[in-house]
Design a protein that fits this description.
There is one protein chain. The longest helix has 6 residues. The chain is built from three helices and 30 strands. The strands form five sheets. It has a 22-stranded antiparallel barrel. Strands 16-17 form a two-stranded antiparallel ribbon. The chain is globular, with a radius of gyration of 26 Å.
Length: 577
C-alpha cells in the first residue's frame, strides 16, 4: 500500500507492505519441494495443511544454502512457519502464527569501479573481506495472534498481539581497503589503518519486542449511503542490548569493547479511517493517524566517550483524503492526498559522525521526515481481456533522512533539507487466445534534492542532484504461454533499469542494464497426487551488470556486481487425502 493511505497500518511516509500467510485448504494436504541450481544452490521445503473440526492448520519448514556468485558470499537459512486458525463459532475466530528462522551469510562487500567492471575481478572481493570474514548471523522467533469477533453484521473487533526475540551478530571490517592481514611491523596495539593490516569489529544486537493492534470496524448506512469506519490504536516496544567489540587489530585477535548500550523504542498510535459512498459512482475516503515514537539510549560504557545516554520523542498527526469516481463499468478514476511522517530508526540514529571511529556517538538529533503526497490515477478494463492501471504521483519531503557516509563498516545519516519525487506507474495485463498472456509495467521516478545542503564531511549537495540509489526508469515485461492438455507453462521475462547514482554529489554511477529470463515447467494431476517440474534461467544473455549499489560508501566500494547466466531446477509433489 503506497503513499498516504498507509496511515491505517503505520507512519512510514513511503508506504507499507502487508503479507498474508496462505489459508489452509479444505482437504488435508502434504507436500515437498526440492530445488537446486548454480553456485551449489539448494532449497528443500516440507509442508502440511488442512482442516479438522473447527481448526485450520498450515505447517511449513525449509532450508536454503548457496555458495553465492561472488567470493565470500555463501549463505544458509532455516525457516519454519506454523499457522493455526480456531473457528470457535460463527462470530469468533482466533489465528495463531509462529515464525522462526536461523540464518548465516557472508558479506562480500562492494567493489571499486576498477574491480567491478573487470571480467577478471567482478566476482571477487576486496582482500579485507576475506581476512576479516565479513558476515552476519541472525535468528528470529515471533508469535502473534489475530483475534476477530463479530458482534453483529455491522460491527467487528480485531485484536492482534505479538511478541518475539531477534539476535543479530555482524562482523564488519573497519579497514576495507587493507591489502594484508598483518601489516609491516604491525602489532595488536597499533592503530588500524590501510598501510598496516586488517581490522574488524563485531556488532551484536539482542532484541526483545512486543506489541498489540486493536481495531473496531463498523459498516452501515447514513440514509441510503453506505459507509465504513475503522478506529484503532497500536502500541509497540522493543529493547536492544547492543555490544560493539573490536575483534581484529592489524590481523591480531583482540577483544576491546567500544560500545555497550540498551536501545529502547516504543510507539503509541491512534488512527481513524473512513469511507462513504456519496452516490453509486462516487466514494470518498478520509482518515488520520496520530503517532508518538520515543527513542531512548542507556549507555553502559561511560569510561570510553563519557555518558551518551539520552532520549528523543517524535509526535505528529497526519491526515489523508481521497476519492474514487466509477466513471463507467470499465473505468475508475481516483485521487488521493495525504501527509506522511517517518521517524528515524535506531539503525539511522546509531552514529553521529562515522569519521570519528569508535568515538562516534548515537545521533539523537535527527529529525523526523515529513511529506506531502499527491496521487491521481485510473484503473480500467480497456477490453474484456486487457486491464490497465495508471498512477501519477508528486511527493515533497522536508528533513528526509539520507545516508551521510559509510566509513569503516559504520553508516551515519543526516536530514536533507528538501527532496522531491514525481513520476508515474503504468501496468497493462492482457489475456489472449490459445493460452497466451502478457504483462508489462513501467515506473518513472524523478527523485531529486530540492534544496542545497552540506554533509558532515563538507560536501555541498546542490538542488537538482538525483537521490542516489533511485532508478529514473524501471521496465518489466513478460510473455507467458500455457498449454493445458500437457500441463505445460512457460514465460519469457525482460527487465530494464536505468543508470543509478551512487553518491549524493552525483560524481559516479552504475550504468543501465537490460536482462532476460526464462521460466518453464510441467504439471501432472494423478488421482490424489499433483506433481510439478520447473526450470528457471536467469540472465540468459550472460549480461555483466551492477545489481545494487552501496550509497555514499566512504571507501569508494559502491558497486555490487550481479550474477551472470544461472539456473534453478525444481520438483514438487503434493498429496491430497
Amino acid at each position: 500500500m503506497r503513499g498516504p493511505f498507509s496511515s491505517l497500518y503505520g507512519n512510514s511516509s513511503g508506504g507499507v507492505i502487508q503479507m498474508f500467510t496462505q489459508d489452509a485448504p479444505a482437504t488435508p494436504t502434504i507436500g515437498a519441494t526440492t530445488m537446486f541450481g548454480s553456485y551449489d544452490t539448494k532449497r528443500n521445503v516440507l509442508e502440511a495443511a488442512g482442516q479438522l473440526e473447527g481448526l485450520e492448520y498450515s505447517l511449513n519448514v525449509s532450508n536454503y544454502e548457496s555458495d553465492g556468485y561472488r567470493a565470500n558470499s555463501s549463505s544458509n537459512k532455516q525457516m519454519a512457519t506454523a499457522k493455526f486458525k480456531f473457528n470457535l463459532n460463527e462470530d469468533t475466530k482466533i489465528t495463531t502464527l509462529v515464525n522462526w528462522f536461523d540464518q548465516e551469510a557472508q558479506d562480500p562487500l562492494g567493489l571499486d569501479r576498477a574491480r567491478a567492471f573487470s571480467n577478471a575481478t567482478r566476482d571477487k572481493v576486496v582482500p579485507a573481506a576475506l581476512f576479516a570474514n565479513t558476515s552476519v548471523k541472525r535468528d528470529h522467533t515471533q508469535v502473534g495472534f489475530n483475534i476477530e469477533h463479530a458482534f453483529n453484521a455491522n460491527n467487528k473487533l480485531t485484536i492482534i498481539p505479538y511478541v518475539g526475540t531477534r539476535n543479530n551478530a555482524q562482523i564488519l571490517t573497519t579497514t576495507a581497503l587493507a591489502t594484508t592481514l598483518n601489516g609491516p611491523g604491525g602489532t595488536s596495539t597499533n592503530p588500524c589503518n590501510t598501510t598496516r593490516g586488517t581490522c574488524a569489529r563485531l556488532s551484536e544486537i539482542s532484541r526483545e519486542f512486543y506489541g498489540v493492534d486493536a481495531r473496531w470496524d463498523n459498516t452501515g448506512y447514513i440514509s441510503t449511503l453506505p459507509y465504513k469506519v475503522s478506529l484503532g490504536m497500536t502500541y509497540g516496544k522493543s529493547s536492544d542490548d547492543r555490544l560493539d567489540t573490536n575483534i581484529l587489530n592489524n590481523g591480531f585477535a583482540v577483544s576491546v569493547l567500544n560500545r555497550d548500550e540498551v536501545n529502547t523504542v516504543d510507539n503509541f498510535d491512534q488512527y481513524l479511517q473512513t469511507s462513504l459512498s456519496l452516490t453509486p459512482t462516487l466514494d470518498l475516503h478520509a482518515g488520520a493517524r496520530h503517532t508518538k515514537v520515543k527513542l531512548k539510549v542507556k549507555d553502559n560504557l561511560i569510561t570510553l566517550n563519557g555518558d551518551n545516554s539520552g532520549e528523543v520523542e517524535y509526535q505528529k498527526t497526519t491526515p489523508v483524503i481521497g476519492a474514487i469516481w466509477k466513471a463507467t463499468d470499465r473505468l475508475n478514476l481516483y485521487a488521493n492526498f495525504g501527509k506522511g511522517f517517518e521517524t528515524p530508526t535506531f539503525i539511522e540514529a546509531a552514529f553521529d559522525d562515522v569519521t570519528t571511529g569508535v568515538a562516534s556517538k548515537p545521533n539523537l538529533s535527527l529529525k523526523a521526515s515529513e511529506s506531502n503526497n499527491t496521487e491521481i490515477g485510473l484503473k480500467s478494463f480497456i477490453t474484456d481481456n486487457t486491464r490497465v492501471n495508471l498512477s501519477l504521483f508528486y511527493i515533497t519531503t522536508k528533513n528526509e533522512i539520507v545516508t551521510d557516509r559509510t566509513v569503516s563498516g559504520r553508516s551515519s545519516y543526516v536530514n536533507a533539507n528538501d527532496t522531491k519525487r514525481s513520476g508515474a506507474e503504468l501496468s497493462i495485463d492482457s489475456i489472449f487466445d490459445n493460452g497466451f498472456t502478457t504483462f508489462i509495467s513501467y515506473t518513472l521516478l524523478n527523485a531529486k534534492f530540492d534544496s542545497d545542503y552540506r554533509t558532515t564531511s563538507g560536501n555541498l549537495i546542490t538542488s537538482g542532484n538525483r537521490i542516489p540509489g533511485t532508478y529514473k526508469s524501471q521496465l518489466y515485461g513478460e510473455v507467458a504461454w500455457k498449454y493445458q492438455p500437457l500441463g505445460f507453462f512457460s514465460a519469457l521475462e525482460g527487465r530494464h533499469n536505468s543508470q543509478v547514482y551512487v553518491n549524493d554529489i552525483n560524481t559516479d554511477k552504475a550504468p543501465s542494464y537490460t536482462i532476460f529470463n526464462i521460466r518453464a515447467g510441467l504439471e501432472q494431476n494423478l488421482t490424489n497426487w499433483r506433481f510439478k517440474e520447473f526450470i528457471r534461467l536467469e540472465n540468459i544473455t550472460d549480461k555483466d551488470y551492477i545489481g545494487s549499489v552501496r550509497v555514499n560508501d566512504g571507501n569508494g566500494l559502491f558497486f555490487e556486481p550481479a550474477a551472470g547466466r544461472n539456473y534453478l531446477l525444481g520438483l514438487s509433489a503434493q498429496y491430497k487425502f
